[in-house]
């Protein structure tokens, strides 16, 4: 089977099942569940995959689901991954199929990711005789909780059979439906969490000389930390650090003895992350000491940066151009500063993530993680088609990406 045969088949089958994919997305949007609580979601996915003839594994890495489509012919083993969890956000997008779970919303587009992957499974299940090898449909819990991908890997999702390559997508409201963004190498940033704890000494506000104001120390620390990016990080590197919460004090007339700050450190290069960590710790300790108190910084390691394989990124571009307008395939000039735990899979097998445009023409889609976020449902069809073209590229043409 060559391109002239399978591309029309992909286009036809994906269009035939478009309304079904949209209905799946709406159902999943109405019934969002938080990280590692995706019980109804995994039931729904497992039922659909079983109905397509896939071999289904449940409770993988917690609430994860894996569908296996085995063509019974030797070939590549390719995995496609979608994340399942929603966010603790109260929806305000005004959709007729809004969340029925109060305070929980698919504000990051994972409902679209799941629907697209189910759509891919539906299309490929009707093309088994045209394919070679094995396709794994990986539905992962807990992407927002900094643990889902690792749980799936520990549970053996990349083994039995061993996966040759893995692909994923993420909707992005900055780009219109019908377009995708690709990038070889680093696609996203790391996302370390930082907690800074400042200890002073309480006193009455009428006698501040008898105490040590922890909030004042915190203010000096915040100011000093801003110098790291300006003086210690190369202007050619990409990094950012933000203090996002400050808590301290309980009464207007009491010098506070404790303050706590939290923030996020986002970098591409590991060396920059180490510079930030060392400098933040020194600034906290020495600034607090100079002002009569003490301070410490605690770092929680976040996701590594998504780092797309060179050869498979070239394959993605080639396959996407068969089902999209080539002008709508955009190469990003710099990484997106968000983070994604898809990077953990890439630590074990070659992989590629791309961004799927999800903004409707002339409409405001809201930013990711916001209560107003919306996905243009036309984008689902494009996601299915790009995934399906990739699957055929891997399981029919068997490309040698090592030479790319």
Instruction: Give a count of the beta strands, DSSP E runs of length 2 or more.
Output: 16
Q: β content, as a range?
A: 15-25%
- Cα Rg: 24 Å
* Amount of helix: 25-40%
Alpha plus pi helix count: 10
Mean pLDDT: 95
Give me the strand/helix succession. HHHEEEHEHEEEEEHEEEHEEHEHEH
Which stretches are low in confidence, meaning pLDDT under 50 for 5 or more residues running?
A: none
Shape: elongated
What class do helices, strands and sheet pairing give? alpha/beta
Distance between the first and last residues' Cα: 23 Å
Sheet with the most strands: spatial strand order: 1-2-4-3-5-16-6-15
- Main sheet properties: 8 strands, mixed
Labels describing this entry:
16 strands; 10 helices; 8-stranded mixed sheet; alpha/beta; elongated; 33% helix; 4-stranded antiparallel sheet; 404 residues
Structure description:
- The protein has 404 residues and is α/β, with parallel strands linked by helices.
- 33% of the residues lie in helices and 24% in strands.
- A hairpin with a 3-residue loop joins strand 1 and strand 2 (64-70).
- It starts with a helix and ends in a 9-residue tail after the last helix.
Q: Can I get a quick summary?
A:
The protein has 404 residues and is an alpha/beta fold. The protein is 33% helix and 24% strand. It contains ten helices and 16 strands.
